[in-house]
Amino acid sequence: MFTGIVEEIGQVAVVQQRPFGARITVRSSLVGADASPGDSILVDGVCLTVLAAKDGLLDFDIVRETLHRTTFSDLRIGRDVNLERALRASDRLSGHIVTGHVDGIGIIRTLKSAGSTTELRIQVDPPLSAYMVTKGSVAVDGISLTIASLTEDGFSVSLIPFTVAHTGLRFKQTGMKINIECDILGKYVRKYLGHFRADGIDEDMLQKYGFC
Is residue 117 pLDDT above 60, yes or no? Predict the structure, then answer.
């Protein structure tokens, strides 16, 4: 489990194609300093398991399913990636609950300065939008962000200068792909409501008890 608060920007140093998918090496000074084999690390929003950690280099295996569902399908040497270590029970939950299980890929449609903030608009497929609400949480390349508004084809967020300066968003451009993870709480609630409807509870009843 993670919080979506990026600790460090690492850099992909090695990409090796393997029968199961790929093996990558990420250069990291902070996150890699105390990492051990078996640790979970959030890499651009994807939860990966450390295979080896030595001299600030972290090795990870990525299976084909992960490559297919994330932006890792076009991973290249030199790519900057957001890194976060797994949440400890004693840590503050400064962002929101992030699992590292990417739901889909978004496309940056707008990335522009708006006064002291930066406006980021991302296009996503309708199935992802169904789990999003205004002022709710979303993880974008592993970064915990608050949805400013919902759009016809996705959502928008407002980025403060600190977020831009301390995450990989500062390297992004319009048209680039980005990993999206919807709020896990919203996914559970939506599934439970689906069971209610399947059991014959109508919309008026759901509204009466504040479920929709």
Answer: yes
Domain check: are 72 and 128 in the same one? Answer: no
High-pLDDT (> 90) share of the chain, %: 81
Among 130, 132, 128, 111, smallest CA distance to 120 is for 111
User: pTM for this structure?
Assistant: 0.89
Q: How many domains does the chain have?
A: 2
Indicate whether 116 and 166 sit together in one domain.
Answer: yes
Quick one: pLDDT at residue 90? 87
Residues 81, 7: Cα–Cα separation, whole Å: 11
Cα separation, 52 vs 41, in Å, equals 12
* 3 domain-assigned: no
